[in-house]
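Reopening this one. Same input as before:
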Amino acid sequence: PVYVKSDAPVGTILEQFPAAGTPIEDYMRLQFVVSSGNKNVEVEVPSVEGKSIKSFLAQLNNTNNQITYNVSLSEDSSAPREGKVISQEKVGKKVKPYSRSDVRIAVRPASQESSNIQGLFTYNLPEYPFAVSVKLDAVSPDGNQTTIADFNHPGKIITIPYDVKKGSTLILYV
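Same output, byte for byte:
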């Protein structure tokens, strides 16, 4: 599809070729002109500093979240067991929806005694003209599947912190 700025909601088909009602006689390629929304809207970057990985993910999963976080981890033996956001940029600033905000999370180094492992899931998605739904699930060694994160993302590099049972498999859905 071709995407254009428009006052119509994001994802609305504005035009199509061939036009609706055209008889289909053979293989035919459809082309759509789709609204990418009005890009002049601004959102405020909420603070996530001090939050645990679990609380940070809850903020990320919030349906009103329109910030894309670039997460990095640093090992710190004095970090709380649940991890902690220790820094963030652009807090309180007005930015375009799905602008990026760098976040650093302190985690404890992996240990043999712990049944969980913390880390950072990183993947390079295609760039999308508007944010698409992404979901990261974990399948534990005993077969239980849980959702770690479920939010909208505009594409390119995606980084999601996790705290899962050792031996779990992570699955990304787009």
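So the earlier flakiness isn't reproducible anymore. For the record, The first strand starts at residue 2 and ends at 4.
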